[in-house]
Specification:
Elements (H helix, E strand, L loop, with lengths): L9 H9 L7 H11 L4 E4 L6 H14 L12 E4 L3 H14 L7 E4 L6 H9 L3 E4 L1 H9 L10 E4 L2 H6 L3 H9 L6 E6 L4 H10 L4 E4 L10 E7 L5 H8 L8 E4 L3 H13 L4 E4 L5 H12 L5 E4 L1 H4 L9 E4 L6 H8 L9 E7 L4 H11 L25 H14 L10
Parallel strand pairs: 1-6, 1-7, 2-4, 2-5, 3-4, 5-6, 8-13, 9-11, 9-12, 10-11, 12-13
The structure holds adenosine monophosphate (AMP).
The site of adenosine monophosphate (AMP) has 15 residues, from α3.
Amino acid sequence: MEFQQLGLIPPIAQAVAAQGYISPTPIQARAIPHVLAGRDLLGLAQTGTGKTAAFALPILQRLAHIAPGKGHRHIRCLVLTPTRELAAQIGDSFHTYGAHLPLRTTVIFGGVGELSQKQALERGIDILVATPGRLLDLANQGFINLKQLEVFVLDEADRMLDMGFIHDVKRVIAMLPQRRQTLFFSATMPREAQDLADRLLYKPETVAVVPPSTTAERVEQEVFFVEKSDKRALLVDVLRDTAMKRVLVFSRTKHGANRIVEHLDKERIGAAAIHGNKSQSARERALADFKAGKTRVLVATDIAARGIDIDDVTHVINFDVPEVPETYVHRIGRTARAGASGMAMTFVEVDERGDWRAIVKLTKQDIPVVEGHPYESTVPMNVVPAAGTAQKKVQDRGREHRRSNPRRHHHR
Ligand code: AMP
């Protein structure tokens, strides 16, 4: 399928061509016609599939049909998204794809001053991209009127619920007019997300993009068997390869991520951590430095990495093996984006071997084992603790600290 077949108007087609996109991604090919036709949409897709353009392009086209009048502009489209990073990226996309249209987009999120956001709202805008908290703040102060809204997009609904935004989201929904077009995007559909979709959508079209396990096939993969205590040394060792230009390292915990960064610092390898305990400005700085190539290594937890848009990640390193096998596929999908090739390495300690087996089973791939590396595990490969063992040990350790009066079981 080609972009021409989607019937995008010339100013939008031009902006798309300027991005160098050759053909629409599957979600774009399937969602754009429905959105252009004014239908509600349930889009099951994660970041990295091209979902932003899947809604931004047809929305711009629909709004462009009616040029803004001379009077004060009112908000015609609202995109609600869980994080500041996503809001900024979506705002950038609307600016890029709408560069040749007379529509105004503004992004509002918390953690920064309100003044410039208020000024933009007062000047009048067509498209608002927002996180829920700041949107409600400014609405309560009378800066936001959604009565004339035409299109509402709820982005990353599952994550929104994960982050505890359900009440805020419901408050925003209460501000919307009944007659509107609604687009609902979520990577997964837990019960709560389905309930919300049922409330919001009217006779929706559903578009689900191929499960990410097929993306994994483009990523070259390797596995290293290693003792837990040698993982950091192994990381330093593999990073000696200068072809590893932009490396995303996954750690299961925030604390673990910090320790990895400290270790790399000692070895003079530029690294930064990105996770929920970092301030907004620290996260933005880490991301910007990584994007600009100033830091080679970004160490992230799964939650922090979800949704951030980084092109050209050359390598993904699973410092810890994810406990949920699908998470592996999501993680390695962060490299080899938009047609580029990429590489993923996984460090497996003895207690993680069961989890690793589950991943091999899920991906149905024969992932090559790196042999003869300096930190190879000496524990025979037939020793395979059950899946979840590594995670369980961490939990047990926590429990031991709390337990004041250990009970003993006597087996007769
Ligand atoms: P998203 O899933 O919206 O975060 O998009 C993931 C990445 O794919 C972004 O960096 C987009 O710029 C890029 N992208 C979106 N659509 C296309 C396309 N049709 N061809 C190539 N790259 C694209």
